[in-house]
Specification:
By secondary structure, the chain is mainly alpha-helical. It is 79% helix and 0% strand. The chain is globular and about 60 Å long.
Length: 411
């Protein structure tokens, strides 16, 4: 009876962690995409010329993505050395304060620097949350847990859109920061992963980044984990964020709204996370789920870039479908988490999604290179086929991890 009660309590605690992680990711996504939604309005207010809107937008977004790269390294190592819970507290405090500060900016450079700091903070949320959930649930159920975290979390983008519709852009940043500070209170009383506690006092290397590079097989495994997520943020960061520019190139009768594009993309992404997670649970294959969704990225991009005279309504449907296509995001992060031992798991699970987000920087530079030699439509075609091709190859090199026991360490 005592053992049964312990099991029930453990299950209850695990699902409590899922809820807390999901709410944290909700705030994380809100703060992550709010710039893409308020870019035009905020740039007008601080005096950015119309001709510089797109390139200055890339500058600020790349600073945020650079912060995610730095933060991924910082929080991943800290998560393996000192625990997943400490990262969840530290990261949300940093990005909440940064977003409040963002509401006071008056020029493009302070805007970019604060987005860099916010990016560093934002980097810790998803990886630590997914690691904690993966280590706290049974191997047959952890896919459901990570699916719920992502499906609820990405709805933060929907909240960001509606908040920006009701309030001006400065208040939209204040709301994001305020939600993060409130979430800190909810996190009081959450518990650390049992697997982490099991290795905390053992004489094994924990959070040692060099371990990913000193073993050839481990390094290749890590790189392949990163590469399978490459197309996701190109879709959000370029194809949707630059919707006004793509609409102009496609002779859209009205100016397309990036904010509404983000809204419908993330509605689709939430549904896609559920569909990909359920498909993986039914087929017991995360690799197959990711492959199918990568093919959907190609299909939805062709639909988008081939839509001459693109109407606003059609754009919303395409954005929704593109969101479904990139809905393997949670499955991708779960795969990364399952590929490595407990002493490196937080490092990998935190750096992987943030390196993928940060990969938008070289992707943007390469995209601009192709734009210079062709046009925005052809450049987008080239980039999507290139990134998706790389992702599919990387996926083929990883072993299936659906039923893998995670209670082990990397030597």
């Amino acid at each position: 009876m005592a053992k049964e009660n312990l099991t029930i309590a453990s299950t209850r605690n695990a699902w409590l962690l899922v809820i807390v992680a999901a709410l944290g990711y909700f705030v994380d996504i809100y703060d992550l995409v709010v710039f893409s939604i308020v870019r035009v309005q905020s740039f007008h207010d601080i005096g950015i010329p119309e001709a510089e809107m797109r390139t200055d937008g890339e500058y600020v977004l790349n600073m945020q993505m650079g912060g995610l790269l730095l933060g991924g390294l910082l929080w991943g190592v800290l998560g393996d050395k000192f625990g997943r819970i400490k990262v969840l507290f530290g990261s949300i405090l940093m990005y909440s304060l940064a977003n409040i500060a963002n509401g006071f900016v008056q020029d493009i450079h302070s805007y970019a620097i604060i987005r860099l700091i916010a990016g560093i903070g934002l980097a810790g949320e998803l990886g630590a949350g997914i690691t904690l959930v993966s280590e706290s649930m049974s191997k047959s159920k952890r896919g459901y847990g990570t699916m719920i975290v992502a499906a609820v979390g990405v709805l933060g983008a929907v909240a960001a859109y509606y908040v920006s519709e009701i309030f001006d852009w400065r208040n939209a940043y204040f709301v994001g920061g305020g939600m993060g500070l409130l979430l800190l209170i909810l996190r009081v009383g959450t518990f650390e992963s049992g697997m982490f506690r099991g290795v905390a006092n053992k004489p094994v290397e924990k959070g040692k980044l060099s371990m990913l590079f000193t073993n050839k097989e481990r390094f290749k495994r890590y790189v392949y984990c990163l590469l399978i997520g490459l197309p996701i943020w190109f879709v959000v960061g370029i194809l949707i964020t630059q919707a006004p520019e793509f609409g102009k190139a496609l002779n859209a009768p009205t100016t397309l709204s990036a904010g509404k594009g983000i809204l419908f993309t993330y509605l689709g992404l939430s549904l896609g996370d559920i569909l990909a997670g359920l498909f993986a649970q039914i087929t017991k294959s995360r690799r197959l789920a990711v492959f199918i969704f990568q093919v959907l990225i190609i299909v939805s991009t062709i639909w988008y870039l081939h839509s001459e005279g693109l109407t606003e309504q059609r754009f919303h449907w395409i954005a929704f479908f593109m969101g479904i296509a990139i809905g393997y995001w949670a499955t991708f992060v779960t795969i990364a988490s399952e590929q490595f031992g407990t002493n490196l798991r937080a490092t990998v699970t935190t750096t992987a999604p943030n390196f993928v987000r940060g990969a938008l920087i070289p992707s943007t530079l390469l995209f601009e290179f192709f734009v210079g030699y062709s046009d925005i439509i052809i450049a987008a075609y080239i980039m999507v086929f290139l990134l998706t091709g790389i992702a599919i190859f990387a996926l083929s090199q990883l072993k299936e991890s659906f039923s893998k026991d995670l209670d082990y360490v990397e030597e």
